[in-house]
Amino acid sequence: MSTPASLLIQAEQLGFDVGARALLEGLCFALQPGLTLVRGGDGRGKTTLLRLLAGQLAPTHGRLQRRAELSCFFFDEATAARHDAVMARAWLAAQREGFAASWQAGTEAALVAALQLAEHLDKPLYMLSTGSRRKLHLLAAAASGAALTLLDTPFAALDGRSIRVLNELLSEAAAERSRAWVLADYALPAGLAGVALAGQIDLGD
Questions:
Q1: Residues 33-62 pLDDT 10s
Q2: CATH number attached to the domain at 33-57+68-202
Q3: From CA 5, how far away is CA 67, in angstroms rounded?
Q4: Entry pTM
């Protein structure tokens, strides 16, 4: 059974177990272009769900159907340490190469300026603050042009200016007609109040 053309991903009774415990169970949702919120408290499976959507994990139960050849951007913070010695400019170049068919050079240039990243591009990643590393990942996510873009608590460690930039970026993402953005966080950020969401997946508190 194929995923309907209007959807990027469809989940039916999706579940994932950690040992004998069901971390996620019975999830039914469809991801469409625009902005979808995954809301949940600590330990409720937000990152695990993103990893399932990215194809890094396989469901324990249920079914996850995806459109064929669906491009996906997801930077897993759990594996960030392996890139520590890489220069920021080289890391960004690798992302550009990986998404060569869809990369948005104009978005890259605009966000380098808006997020004040130019001065950090010639430093190894281990020399960047947590906030600067997160801004670099956000730049790559936005510029990738990926059909599915997954963001895991992206507001954490950002300064006020960068939070405003991210709010603007996600507000624009909500109006997308070709890309699906998934924002995982504890709640809908205040700066996005009133933004029309394509969907919401509530994992509970």
A1: 999 999 999 999 999 999 999 999 999 999
A2: 3.40.50.300
A3: 8
A4: 0.94
